[in-house]
Write a structure and sequence with these properties.
The chain is an alpha+beta fold. It is about 20% helix and about 20% strand. The protein is built from 11 helices and 13 strands. β8 (about 345-350) and β9 (about 350) form a beta hairpin. Bound molecules: protoporphyrin IX containing FE (HEM). Protoporphyrin IX containing FE binds near residues 260, 267, 268 and 363. Protoporphyrin IX containing FE (HEM) binds next to β7, α10, β12 and α11. Its cofactor is heme b.
């Protein structure tokens, strides 16, 4: 059951969606908005331009006037100085999606898509449904919203949107400039090189746009991606997507350090949301970057398969040697508790106490010109294979102000002992514009 938002787009209170609420029963009253446009969409949309399809789904739903799908608790504001989903507390669930612009789509389609996604993201992150929710004004038409989040609250949903390099350069060498933004390509936005041991699959790599949907509830994250995909129809198509569970990093000190599927605490030395100087130094694009990207970042995603069955046969000593930390407490092998800095110079019996090829040594800022990455990854399991092995791994996500920072650390990891147990099978890099101001659409400054 749905409830109307008031004139400011604020639903009175969480209980307003419940049975017996006079507002809720009023929502059954036929609403004339969008009947003609949406009718055309439901009938096959043959006569509609791509932009009009998304517009039809959103028409009349202006900022926050979508219907309430389940109450107003757990809201992370979509608009702000930076996009949410980077330093906002990491939720437990992920649905990450990459999109490709359809052939023939140009600047108008890209701009209208970003406008429609901005409007939809603002609605969805408030726990509201798209358009008139489950109740179209004509029961012969499909509902505006796909419906599976009805009754659920906002679940701290964040939607973080990035732009792929090929939007600027075109797909092929010498391609024309379909979106008119070639001159806006930042110098730093170089493609990732290929790394030692990469086994990347094209079917889960790249994309013109990415949407990182994070939420407390997987259904809320999936609902968001599904509806954004639907709104994008005719302009962008879903290229690949990944579900994740169990965040593998903290971005706030209030959160406990989670564990990855090797059973180790992950995210201990991550950049936290209160480390403002380090966020400026390592994560946010500043005045030295292009104007349209300031306050933004670059998102690297790496789908890393973990051969957990082999790992599970390694002794505890071996596992701890590989990582360079203890498994239970997560402290460096040189002691001092979980949050102590590893003592990379310490010796035990004449040998380095932390192996020269241990993961935390090679990834440590002191081995990488002081570089720190903001990691925000998730565990994943994509079923199992015929050998009885889980398709398990880490959907690694990091944010950095320059993709070269990720490249530097990943190249340092070439001798990593961990490499025997992992394979990078997917990859992507996107520029994540800064936060969306009042009345703006995401990425607007790119087109000014
Ligand atoms: C499946 C693959 C991986 C696993 C299981 C893994 C696991 C871990 C663990 C257990 C830690 C120690 C706790 C912590 O500080 O978070 C750690 C630290 C770290 N990892 Fe990874 N990691 C993986 C891949 C990567 C990749 C691909 C990168 C970047 C290219 C990376 C960069 C880092 C960094 C920067 C640190 C913190 C080092 C420090 O400041 O002390 N990791 N990782």
């Amino acid at each position: 059951m749905t409830a109307h938002a008031d004139a400011d787009g604020v639903v009175p209170d969480e209980g307003a969606t419940g049975a017996g609420d006079p507002e809720a029963s009023a929502s059954a009253t036929p609403r004339p908005s969008r009947r003609a446009l949406f009718g055309a969409f439901g009938a096959g949309a043959a006569g509609l331009t791509a932009g009009a399809i998304g517009g039809a789904l959103l028409a009349g739903s202006g900022s926050g006037s979508g219907t309430a799908s389940g109450g107003r608790s757990g809201i992370v504001p979509f608009r702000g100085e930076h996009q949410a989903g980077i330093v906002t507390p990491a939720q437990d669930r992920l649905h990450f999606a990459a999109f490709k612009m359809v052939d023939g789509a140009g600047r108008d389609e890209l701009v209208s898509l970003l406008r429609d996604w901005t409007e939809a993201a603002e609605i969805l992150t408030q726990g509201l449904a798209i358009g008139t929710g489950l109740e179209p004004s004509n029961a012969l038409l499909p509902p505006d919203d796909t419906g599976e989040a009805e009754g659920l609250n906002a679940g701290h949903l964040t939607l973080t949107i990035g732009l792929g390099r090929e939007l600027f350069t075109g797909r092929t060498e010498g391609a024309d400039d379909p979106f008119g933004i070639r001159h806006r390509l930042p110098d730093a936005f170089e493609p990732l090189p290929s790394f030692a041991f990469d086994l990347l699959e094209a079917a889960q790599s790249g994309g013109d746009l990415c949407v990182q949907a994070c939420a407390d509830d997987p259904q809320v994250a999936v609902h968001a991606i599904r509806n954004l995909t639907r709104i994008g129809m005719g302009r962008a198509r879903l290229a690949w997507s990944q579900l994740g569970f169990g965040r593998t990093a903290s971005t706030s000190r209030e959160q406990d350090t989670p564990r990855n599927l090797f059973g180790f605490k992950d995210g201990t030395m991550n950049i936290m949301s209160d480390e403002a100087a380090d966020l400026d130094a390592h994560v946010w694009v500043g005045d030295d970057g292009p104007e349209w990207l300031r306050g933004g970042s670059y998102l690297v995603a790496r789908k890393i398969l973990m051969t957990i069955e082999t790992w599970d046969r390694a002794s505890l000593d071996e596992q701890e040697r590989i990582i360079g930390r203890t498994k239970l407490v997560g402290e460096p092998l040189t002691g001092g508790g979980e949050f102590a800095d590893p003592d990379l110079a310490a010796l035990t019996g004449g040998e380095p106490a932390i192996d020269i090829a241990a993961h935390v040594r090679l990834a440590h800022p002191s081995q990488n010109d002081g570089i720190r990455l903001l990691r925000r990854g998730y565990n994943y399991v994509d079923g199992s294979n015929s050998l009885g092995q889980l398709g398990a791994g880490l959907f690694f996500i990091s944010f950095q102000k320059d993709p070269a920072a990720f490249v530097r650390v990943q190249q340092s990891l070439k001798p990593d002992l961990l490499n025997e147990y992992i394979r990078h099978i997917g990859s992507g890099l996107w520029a994540v514009p800064g936060g969306v101001g009042p009345g703006e659409f995401l990425g607007q400054r790119l087109f000014d």
